Automatic annotation (TrEMBL), chains A, B:
Annotated Carbohydrate kinase PfkB domain residues: 11-285
EC nos: 2.7.1.-
Enzyme's top EC category: transferase
NCBIfam families, alphabetized: 1-PFK
Record's protein name: Hexose kinase
Gene Ontology biological-process annotations: carbohydrate catabolic process; small molecule metabolic process
Any Gene Ontology CC annotation: cytosol
Annotated family: Belongs to the carbohydrate kinase PfkB family.
Keywords assigned: ATP-binding, Kinase, Nucleotide-binding, Transferase
Length: 305, 305
């Protein structure tokens, strides 16, 4: 079973407007509500691929109830989210109808108190024995210690559970030092971690800092993987146009589904790139277009790097 | 007892950001959640002034639950809102920290089906015998007939209940023809109704169309009242700086509280202008600054027009 951890879940709102003009009033022509936060997105894609997946982390308030109500309808997905006193944040993506450009507004997460964090650690330890893979995803809400992911990486390793870490900044720096099996930074996150903007150099440096394997996402140029087994670059057949929301989370789902199905690295990477590209192309932010995914899967180029 | 009707209630969110820049991502530094919709705002100000007030209209979904939870804590306010299948809309006001300028995003309201509208009409008829004044406020959600306010005005008059109408466009045009006791349009709404941008001419024309009395809001120049008892203009001591959200609703609350307390017209107008100005000056959108209100009350100039 795969476990995804989302400490800062979200209710993701997408608003369609004619054109966003600051300091004026806008009628929103369409509202789409989705459960969000990176680990939740990863879990939904894994469930859509037919995997059994459990989500944990924090939710609270009316927004948290909306997240859980929507997850209850996803086949294959088990909700092990913990209730907290604070309210789950909202994110608002305002999409201009004409250009398709998106303006993002992200609420801060709820304050997590030390007792709530302690309860989470206990619950996480209870879940680990039933798990083969855990994905630790996204930002930390206020009140969670900055070394939280380092703790969660160590606990997973102590149980022999494969652990992927997908975060940024100081939580990533500390988490990497705890030796996760895989990290999936984008170029900016990798540069912040290593000081280098050169993908291969930065990826190798991230491994020296503790990551067993690194899959760096290079945007339109696909993924660069550096692992003990080898180095590959996986590139989509053509640059994708659309909404990049959730594309990185779909890539994580592709990597993990390929891992539990014991696919070789090149096949895992092809799946990750195809899913990621099919997410950019989907009409709704964060969803993936299944027909596009299946068609792309045969056309991703994977070469030794 | 005063009844306010809000067919299109809202959960009003105020987001504080450094500066809104289209097509970029923003961290929201502060989120304020308030129950909203014009009639709800009027009721909250009336309750703050010590009046017993009942709110009715529609709410639904998690957002509707949030609205009702917050109204439950208001002393003197009775919740007679009807549940509907659709979800109460959100409005998002994005305030730039530096300039104080506001960008508004308004979700559409929920679809109201004919059975829900019929249930509302029954409920409204049940409430009227216990009411001395009713305020019909704001836009109509999808599915409510455009002549809705005309019906509600006629029902109130049939029960001998004083009826104020504060809306715009075709619902205002039809509502005015049903002969409400008072309307409170702003200059744009009045121009849309009458074709005239000249305040006194337009106000007199609105009376000929059926409104017993008209209080036109002239922005920084205060209020112009034309009633069978006379004509007055009420002007604040100085132009108010701040957030105009809810200023018109505070003016309505001032007029109605003065009416039920049997104050003469000039005193009602002074109260309306002082409340409205104290709302613009308040730190939180839609709240009023009580100290500013009491100080302004003695300084509003009311003259025969």
């Amino acid at each position: 079973m795969i476990l995804t951890v989302t400490l800062n879940t979200a209710l993701d709102l997408t608003y369609r407007v004619r054109s966003l003009r600051p300091h004026t009033s806008h009628r929103v022509s369409e509202v789409v509500e989705r459960p969000g936060g990176k680990g939740v997105n990863v879990a939904r894609v894994l469930a859509a691929l037919g995997h059994e997946v459990t989500v944990t982390g924090f939710t609270g308030g009316g927004t948290g109830r909306a997240v859980r109500d929507r997850l209850a309808g996803v086949p294959g997905l088990t909700d092990a989210l913990l209730p907290v006193a604070g309210a789950t944040r909202r994110t608002v993506a305002v999409v201009d109808e004409r250009s398709g450009d998106t303006t993002q507004l992200n609420e801060p997460g709820p304050q997590i108190d030390p007792a709530e964090w302690g309860t989470f650690l206990d619950r996480y330890e209870e879940l680990l024995p039933g798990v083969s893979v855990v994905a630790l995803c996204g930002s930390l809400p206020p009140g969670v210690p900055v070394g939280a992911y380092a703790n969660l990486v160590r606990a997973a390793r102590a149980h022999g559970v494969f652990v992927l870490l997908d975060t940024s900044g100081e939580p990533l720096r500390r988490g990497v030092a705890a030796r996760p099996d895989l990290i999936k930074p984008n170029i900016d996150e990798l540069a912040e971690l290593t000081g280098s903007h050169e993908p291969l150099r930065a990826t190798q440096d991230a491994r020296r800092r503790g990551a067993h394997a690194v899959v760096a996402s290079l945007g339109a140029e696909g993924l660069l993987a550096v692992a003990p087994e080898g180095r590959w670059q996986a590139v989509p057949p053509a640059p994708a146009h659309g909404n990049p929301t959730g594309a990185g989370d779909s890539a994580v789902a592709g990597l993990l589904s390929g891992l539990v199905e014991k696919l070789p690295w090149p096949d895992r990477l092809a799946r990750a790139v195809a899913l990621s590209t099919a997410t950019v192309r989907a009409a709704t932010a964060g969803e993936f277009d299944r027909a596009a995914y299946e068609e792309l899967l045969t056309r991703v180029s994977v070469t030794a790097a």
